[in-house]
Each structure stands twice: as C-alpha cells, then as structure tokens.
Amino acid sequence: MIIITNNPIVKKQLTNKEILQKDITYIEILKECRDLIHKGYELLSHPLYGSVKPNETPYRSVIMKKGHNLDHNSLILIEEAIATATKFQNNKKTPNWTDQVIDDFRVIDFDILNNTLQRIEYIV
C-alpha cells in the first residue's frame, strides 16, 4: 500500500506507511495517481472522497496498491476525478485561504485518510 499526498501532516503522522508526499497541487496529485495506475497500481480510496469540493481544499491524499496489470476501473475513476477537479477549478479557483483555514484543510484531509485506512486495513 502507498499513499500519494500533498498534505505535509500525512508523512509526519503515518510514519509506518509508505508515503509519496509531493509539494504539488490537488490536480497534480490526481495526475500522479494516474501515472502510477499506468504502471500497474490500483486505487484503494476514491480520489474525490469527502464532502470538500476540489476547488475548496488544496489537499488530497489517495491510497493505492501495486497491482499486476493496468486496472481499467482505477484508470476510468482517476480520469473522471481529474476532469471533475479541473471543471471545479475552471469554474472557481481555490481561494487564497488564511493559515488557519489551510491548517483546517490539512486536518480534514488527514482525518478522512486515517478513517479510510482503518476501514481498508479492517477489510484486508
């Protein structure tokens, strides 16, 4: 399992997980996931999970696993997520939030990720 994220607290909090943390945008995180899918990875979490819109938060964390072949379902899902996030950004850019709001979005992303990890690990 690997977590692709642009949220700096994910790497600090989840020291026992494989984390690919990059200082890139929300949409670039989705594109990074797409590139990994082309290399045989599969999505374990939905790329647009949570109720925060893609143009509201700058943070996204996605859980993936190494597969054996191109997973067409993951590819379709990530392409649709990229299109949706791009549409939201084109309609209204992510605001220039205050530091406090940015911190809140980090916590929200981490909390959703952590809860998703617990469910995945329970199933596996």
TrEMBL record:
This is GrdX family protein. The lineage of its organism: Bacteria, Bacillati, Bacillota, Clostridia, Peptostreptococcales. It comes from the Bacteria.
